[in-house]
Design goal:
With 136 residues, the chain is an alpha+beta fold. Helices cover 35% and strands 18% of the residues. The model has no long low-confidence stretch (mean pLDDT 75).
């Protein structure tokens, strides 16, 4: 086998070995082992050789579940607000305010043309210039 082919087969062999190992240990205790102890409130059911019954898991903590739900909801809402604030310009917010800012360069007027395209009237040192912008 070529060295690259051996390297490509290595993860498959590791995964196969782990699967065989997990399958061998997931079968539970051998039939000769003593039956497992069950919770005290579980009714007695005869357990024969080879039968294995796990006890019931503890009920979930409702306060913890609701707390994680509330924290997750707040985190998602904060991420939404941050995305909207930083994406405001991309969503078509105002490029600049007309008539404000510097003394040599002023934006007199802007007209949206649709699909994030704008037509701007700019005045530079008393000369008016028409400029068009698009999303790209």
């Amino acid at each position: 086998m070529r060295p690259r082919a051996r390297l490509a087969c290595a993860p498959l062999l590791v995964a196969l070995a782990l699967a065989v190992h997990n399958r061998a240990h997931a079968a539970g205790p051998p039939p000769s082992a003593a039956p497992a102890k069950v919770a005290a409130d579980t009714p007695e059911v005869p357990v024969g050789p080879g039968d294995y019954r796990e006890p019931w898991p503890a009920p979930p903590n409702i306060g913890g579940v609701l707390g994680r739900l509330a924290v997750g909801t707040v985190v998602v809402l904060v991420l939404c607000v941050v995305t909207l604030v930083f994406g405001k310009r991309w969503l078509g917010g105002a490029v600049a305010k007309a008539g404000g800012g510097g003394t040599r360069l002023t934006l007199k007027e802007s007209v949206p043309l649709g699909h994030r395209c704008f037509l701007h009237l700019v005045e530079v040192d008393g000369t008016r210039v028409l400029a068009a912008t698009d999303a790209a």
